[in-house]
Amino acid sequence: MLAPMEGVTDFHMRKILTAVFAYDRCVTEFIRITNNLYPDRVFLKYCPELTSGGVTESGVPVYVQLLGTDCHFMSLNAKRLVELGAPGIDLNFGCPAKTVNRHGGGSSLLRTPDRVRDIVASVRDAVDPTIPVTAKIRLGFDNTDNLMQIASGIEQAGASGLCVHARTRLDGYKPPAHWAEVKQVRRELSIPITVNGEIWSDSDASMARADSDCVDLMLGRGALAKPDLACRIRASTSNVACYKYTWLDVLDLLEQLLETAVDLPVRYAGNRTKQWLSYLIREYDEASTLFTQIKRLQEIDAMASVIREHRQSLAGG
Question: Is there a smaller number of Cβ atoms within 10 Å at the N or the C end of the chain?
């Protein structure tokens, strides 16, 4: 599965990554729910795939993720999303952002397992029983003491599946991810459990599966650093062939993303491409050179020109 990453895995990135790689599901960036039912245009902004059956152009289902604390409005918005065609609803109990946590959302809810259970139950009761309702959590807020109570409550509330980011909120994104902490959840619950966190390679995927006893994986930053990671993982465990992307192939993807920014304000237009390059540096030496060349540029045309020149210099060499 392709992880929801705020400001990163938007509609355009989902389209690019699922077009050529082996994902089974995507999850949108979270929609923050407060005390209102959003108009349809808000849902379509976060998930344009709702206009095409709730799937990407390559047919990968896109679950819509909600973040909030009010059972009534979480369920109200979830119900409307299903009416619009969402193939699944995912509930965010893992976001570590301070601004989210200060308002009682995201991973701060892990301190109140009963509240997590109630939110899941309210959404589950509100939507068609054939529509999956899943949840994403961390191991806990500042420790793992409540992990089993949280996970069991989510299952009892009727969730269809659970993804566990194998770090606490206190851990943030610091390595390592504690995959083994997920094993008890996997063994004691009957719903599908997905492990997430610090999976950068097919060998990481193998270790995460072994340590957690989970089969299902959610890929986040690793999918950005190595865009063919899902394909490599699949190939490592089956007879499926995997075309391994070269740097020239990755340049094609970067150009595709840059082209989607033409309608954005100039000062923000190239930010997503720069952000992606910052992840690609981990796996591709050439990404560092290109990032240095474009990091101070703002206009799309100027960035596109530099990328073309970079490509030509590689071809010439």
Answer: C
pLDDT over 90, % of the chain: 87
Q: Is 152 helix (H, G, I), strand (E, B) or coil?
A: helix
pLDDT at 104: 83
Tell me if residue 95 is catalytic. Answer: yes
For 198, the 3-state DSSP assignment is coil
Residue that the structure tokens 């200060």 belong to = 102
Confidence of residue 239 (pLDDT cuts 50, 70, 90): confident
C-alpha to C-alpha distance for 48 and 39, rounded to whole angstroms:
14
**Residue 29 · residue 46 · CB < 8 Å:** yes
Q: Is residue 128 part of a domain?
A: yes
pLDDT, average across residues 4-8: 92
Question: Looking at 26, 95, 163, 231, which residue is catalytic?
Answer: 95
Q: For 108-112, which contacts have Cβ atoms below 8 Å and span 24 or more sequence positions? A: 108/141, 108/169, 109/69, 110/137, 110/138, 110/140, 110/141, 110/146, 110/150, 110/169, 111/141, 111/146
Predicted confidence band of residue 124 (pLDDT cuts 50, 70, 90): very high
- Decide if pLDDT at 317 tops 70: no
Structural domain range at position 135: 11-237
Structure tokens that stand for 140 in this block? 């806990």
| Residues 51-68: tens digit of each pLDDT | 999 999 999 999 999 999
Of the candidates 138, 90, 132, the one whose C-alpha atom is nearest the C-alpha of residue 113 is: 138
The DSSP H or E segment spanning 195 is: strand 193-196
Residue 100 and residue 40 in one domain: yes
- 275 and 221 in a single domain? The answer is no
Identify the CATH number of the domain in which residue 301 sits.
1.20.225.30
User: What is the distance between the alpha carbons of residues 135 and 226, in angstroms, rounded to a whole number?
Assistant: 26
Are β-strands 216-218 and 193-196 bridged in parallel, bridged antiparallel, or unpaired?
parallel
Residues 165 and 221 in one domain: yes
